[in-house]
Amino acid sequence: MNRTARLSAAAIAVSVLALAGCGRGDAGASDSVAPAADVSEGPATGTVEVWAMGTEGEMLGDFAAAFVAENPDVTINVTAIPWDAAHDKIATAIAGGQTPDVSMIGTTWMGEFAATGALDATPGLIDSSQFFEGAWGSTDVGGTHFGAPWYVETRVLYYRTDLMAEPPTDWDGLTAMAKDMQAAGAKWGITLQPGQTGAWQTFMPFAWQAGAQIVNEDATEFTIDSPEFVAALTKYQSFFTDGLAPTELPQGSLEPDFMAGTIGSFVSGPWHVGILKETDAAGMANVGLAPLPAGANQASFIGGANLAVFKDAQNRDAAWKFVKWLSQPDVQVEWFKAVTDLPSVAAAWDDPSIADDAYLSVFGEQLKTAVAPPSIPTWEEVASVIDTELELLTKADADPQEVAT
User: Fold this and answer.
1) What pTM did the predictor assign?
2) pLDDT: is 2 or 73 the higher one?
3) Of the N and C termini of the chain, which has fewer Cβ atoms inside 10 Å?
């Protein structure tokens, strides 16, 4: 089977699974979801079982003591789950009808778990207007919202200020910057993921900036063969064909090479601020951050985690009250101070602990236009197809039109 035929077969298989998996027909998935029930007034009571992953799972139990102080008749039991076991544990719990009251769920898993019918629709208790638009969008499955955004991350441009005084604001400027950085002594003007796992997170901002979408408005068809998607693939490929970005980078070399000026710029999330400081604290004087340059639109990828309540929750009302509490701006600020998770609530970014940080403020600006991928049941398979095709695009000089077809 040739490459184009293989991609077409994969794309067809994925699209059938992804769009049929939601039960979407002419009516759309939201038609089969009952409206969210109201939540009782008054303090939370009883026991709330919570699952959370990684550092969040380790820290949330102690952090919840403040909620218990406000609701003395409630008990919050937090079970910490390793990230690498979380997906299967949640899926198994849903299949066996043994779900907790509330669980942390990665944003790209929302479509899959909502499609099972196991998640409770978000009640009016949760104020959707307080969240960044992209974060709230990650809870939307077929027109119905499930859960609430808890914390977010997005991608911005890291660049060497000693090689480029002003960051670029558009696509042409990004190319010019990469060339100028090479002229100033950098081996590579920019690094972008050349395919493989997770590369879609670096590429998709280019697609959204070009005005492209993965699916149509009602999520009944894939639209990756659009002229806008092809334009994004063409732009992305140009950094590799023009010799501005490497197709291979030794593992662990990004940070030291960037701090040494061998690499002029790269795209990444907030965690890289800490990594670069550990690599060369003094060298941070030459590190700048800026929102990603715009195409037709300003955009970046938004990820993070949501909090979802299950339909089988034994203590639904208290679970939603806990989710609401975790969504309060002041609580989100305190959670940031404890764990450094970036708040999903826009008002929390006005707190001096965040607003006065020159690096964090860039992420806050980018979050205003960050976009979540569509919440479809088999997004992981879709993402895998994109990752594979990006590798052919960047390393085998595949034609962007064929990649998108």
Assistant:
1) 0.89
2) 73
3) N
